[in-house]
Amino acid sequence: MTPLDWTLLHPGALGDLILALHLAARIPEIRRSARLTVYSRIALPPLRISGLHIRFASSESLHLDWLFRDPATAGSAPASLQSAIAHRGVLNLYSGPTNPIHERLLSLRPTSCYSIETATPIISDAQQHVLKWWEHQLAQKGLLARSCIQIERCGHRFHLDQPDTAAHQHDDEQTKPDILIHPGSGGIAKCWPLAHYLDLAHSFAAEGPATAFLLGPAEAERWPAEKIADIRRNHQLLQPADTRELATLLAGTRLYIGNDSGPTHLAAALGAPTIALFGPTRAARWRPLGRTIEIFQGDPGRDDAWGIPPAAIRTAALRLCSPS
Q1: Which stretches of 62-210 are assigned E, i.e. beta strand?
Q2: CATH 3.40.50 fits 6-160, yes or no
């Protein structure tokens, strides 16, 4: 019997997408298919999780607005959407099974279609990882055995299926860093103060590990130009052109340090030893999954360092960077 190809429809940001891939990799039917196409706003390079090969395509190419229109006036589904859904397995993270979007997807004749409500219930256990809530919904539909929904702390290891050699230009242009520090996040409140990250980088310079700062579009847009210029004057600064280049940088680093953010989830999934700092969000619910992760849960109400001693971050970083 020919394995069924699968489609994953994902509307969210990078961190949520990485957790969705962990979820997909735990579903036996998807693992047996060996092929998963992810339609998302995020353009990651091809990935491999065990024997599952994952490629990414733009959700805009599907014209998904058809799913949200009034069926009486929407007309026929776009050909690209029909091709992505018909006779395939579908994992939909746009809506739960009671939403009209689910019915619209079923009208396109997928072989199977599972829709997940990604927002966690207010009454759910605050110490429960969000992935467990998603898996619980699939278990109710029989796609996951209930005995399989225990969250493994390490998750699945992601591999770049086709490493992007172009992204290695940084290796030739400047010293390859041992430590990557990403001081930003999609939410300003989730960012540990930059001053503490700068102090960490200065202390690392004295201890030996080569350190670079990693900035993304959110920081380039929100931060004053003089702040970014100051970092560039005093430290190696990397600003990947896109998430494909970001993934290649993260896969090759000895240590990553960052806030609750998409790059933090991606670094951990790609196997980079990761130190993740949480403040207003709860690590118990949103922590990244990976093989070597140290979580620091702070409280922004305590002090400007969230009650997380910068010296503790430095100690953990030097330990994780030291030869085993």
Answers
A1: 89-92, 112-115, 159-160, 179-182
A2: yes
Please identify which residue in the block is written with the tokens 């019997």. Answer: 1
> Would the pTM of this model clear 0.70, i.e. be above it?
yes
Query: What residue type is assigned to position 67 of the chain?
Result: L
- Rounded Cα distance between 268 and 246, Å, is 13
Q: Would you say the C-alpha torsion 266, 271, 277, 278 has a positive or negative sign? A: positive
Q: Could you report the per-residue pLDDT of 67-121, keeping only the tens digit for each?
A: 999 999 999 999 999 999 999 999 999 999 999 999 999 999 999 999 999 887 7
C-alpha–C-alpha distance, residues 27 and 32, integer Å? 9
**Among 211, 229, 210, 209, CA closest to 219:** 229
Q: Which homologous superfamily is 171-321 in?
A: Glycogen Phosphorylase B; (3.40.50.2000)
* Residue with token string 């050909």: 79
Measure the CA–CA gap between 267 and 158, rounded to whole angstroms.
Answer: 10
Q: pLDDT (tens digit, 9 = 90+) per residue, 199-229?
A: 999 999 887 789 999 999 989 999 999 999 9
